[in-house]
Amino acid sequence: MSTAAAPDRRSRRRQQTIDEILDVSVALMETEGVAALSLSAVARRLGMQPPSLYQYFPSKLAIYDALFQRGAEQIRDAQREARDGAEPADQLSAAMNAFSRWCMANQVLTQLLFWRPIPGFEPSPEAFAPAVEGLADLKAFLQQEVDSGQLDPRATSDDGIALFTAMTAGVLSQQMANEPQATFENGRFMKLMPVVLEMFYQRYQPTRGKEK
Amino acid sequence: MSTAAAPDRRSRRRQQTIDEILDVSVALMETEGVAALSLSAVARRLGMQPPSLYQYFPSKLAIYDALFQRGAEQIRDAQREARDGAEPADQLSAAMNAFSRWCMANQVLTQLLFWRPIPGFEPSPEAFAPAVEGLADLKAFLQQEVDSGQLDPRATSDDGIALFTAMTAGVLSQQMANEPQATFENGRFMKLMPVVLEMFYQRYQPTRGKEK
DNA sequence: GTCTATAACGCGATAGAC
DNA sequence: GTCTATCGCGTTATAGAC
């Protein structure tokens, strides 16, 4: 009962250690691969013994879960910052750029978020929540374009959103699989991102929108 | 020196064991995840001791390599069969369907081929060769459409091919990540495959092809 | 209570001797 | 083909230090 609410020095120190564990985990995954994360290696880097990590995370999968949540929050926030720094008419494009840029700069977390590379790992509802919010934001961006007459209302249907995410995920996954060392700016596939956006606008062009 | 060329009964038996190992490996990866393949589990299923597997494969990564090659060959052949069973005008679409259908039916191998889920695994040149052939086939399909006036010549440029593979890979990866239990026929994302094909034809429409 | 260490269990990949 | 052995892993139990 005494452990409930106590935002004192100790819990701050504890949170700091948790963040360090996550930082080191990401760093190791970057060099060794997402699925090659080793608790022993994390502990070594932190000057700890492996069992000590269990004070902070109940299992290895719990670390993956925390990383999933971290990544989803960062993507969501990157999109929102991009939105808040752009004119309404540019917000969809700005958010898409911010998303792509973040993914290229955080490929390890991107793999964890969008592929399923870890056997047995399913994100918890809490970890998944910010991802849902990010998707809701995307829907809002599309709705805004519908309201301003730039897109047909069908763009915000389930199919429209699925098409949008499939095309962006496709460019991204080709880029990461074939040219992972590239950046957002110079990637061979990355430069197709504006192209698929243009194709999306074309397909859901208003007033004379057509479907076969 | 006596082991060089001897296509007799023994080498047939040996090849049979190799195929069994690969079959069991795929079966286990289907239930446990691509990265969770365990040589001990494979050996158990085959009634062998784990070290015996090293008579057939020098390491676990060599098994992944053989599976990569197997998958690439099967995709290439599925595309070619689809091509040979279709009218020239339908061959691109038929090959795309055959490709998608194979991927949904062989998700484990698809992950191995198109994502990089195994730390330290890079396909060998021999394993990669059939994948290169499959890509060359795709280029030939596109060229055929260009020659028959259905597509602008730019469709076979590096950008055109990258766009084509990115869109198909995107639909596929969204389907596999979000609805892996679906089939080629009923997948929510899978039904976007004809849509992206239509969008591709639209973008590389000949005679009045335009680019911003 | 909170953190850390040590010891130990079971499992995995793999090398070497038979 | 097997058996034995080594090493590293995730994890648990336990006990001592702050």
TrEMBL record, chains A, B:
It comes from the Bacteria. Pfam families: TetR_N (PF00440). This is TetR family transcriptional regulator. Residues 15-75 form the HTH tetR-type domain. SUPFAM superfamilies: Homeodomain-like (SSF46689). Gene3D superfamilies: Tetracycline Repressor, domain 2. Residues 38-57 bind DNA. InterPro entries: Homeodomain-like_sf (IPR009057), HTH-type_TetR-like_transc_reg (IPR050109), HTH_TetR (IPR001647). It comes from Kribbella ginsengisoli. PANTHER family: HTH-TYPE TRANSCRIPTIONAL REGULATOR BETI, HTH-TYPE TRANSCRIPTIONAL REGULATOR RUTR.
